[in-house]
Amino acid sequence: MNEPAPSFRLASIFDDETVPIEDGTMQWIPLRRQLGIQGFGTNAYRAAQAGDRVIEEHVESPGQEEMYVVVSGGVTFDIDGEQVDAPAGTVVFLPRPDARRGGIATEDDTVVLAVGGWPGKPYHSLPWEPIFLASEAMRQGDWAAAAETLEREAGEQRGSPFVRFRLACCLAEMGEHERALDELRQAIESKPDLLSAAEKEEHMASLRGLEGWPG
After folding, report:
1. CATH number of 128-204
2. Rounded to an integer, what distance in angstroms lies between the CA atom of residue 111 and that of residue 47?
3. Which one of 1, 153, 180, 198 has the fewest beta carbons within 10 angstroms of its own beta carbon?
4. Spatial separation of the C-alpha atoms in residues 106 and 22, rounded to whole Å
5. Would you list the domain boundaries of the chain?
6. Interval 59-92: pLDDT, tens
7. pLDDT at 193 exceeding the cut of 70
8. How many helices (H) and strands (E) does the chain have?
9. pTM of the model
10. Strands across the sheet with 65-72, in order?
């Protein structure tokens, strides 16, 4: 018999352990995963010092709206080239997923809460989550740990071309060339434009020229 879900769960966006991403200074709190949220996407980000990146430069997945709440500190957002100053208490809503956005902390101990989802459509997990979870191990060159994290944490995104691409990088660095090529081929079958990325990717240098290299 399944245990009933708890009446509530708690997390702290100020105190919970963070996952270093980007260059290691940007701090991610995977709230959705920690709390087991399935109905919407939400995460928090911390920057220890002014000048650190607190929101990575990106566009959202097709159709997804996103909102940022500056909980403490301050942020300068860059939204499609426009600078937006956002002190604590500011809410920034981006209805267009193709709008490129990013943010730099303007004060020490800046914290931002992000919420996103698709209008009229149930939420589903996205491939960047397991990639973020593996990013610190990749940055440290611990390719076995990064590969294990990707395979353990990907869940329903295990077949995502982006997860397969990053896993291929790890496997190539580990010398597991046959597995790496298999993951890469499947990634490119799903998303052909990843071939050009693979041709430039330094972590796949050992694969280029091998039999089975796609293209």
Report:
1. 1.25.40.10
2. 7
3. 1
4. 18
5. 19-117, 128-204
6. 998 899 999 999 999 999 999 999 999 999 999 9
7. yes
8. 6, 10
9. 0.88
10. 19-21, 26-29, 41-47, 110-117, 65-72, 91-94
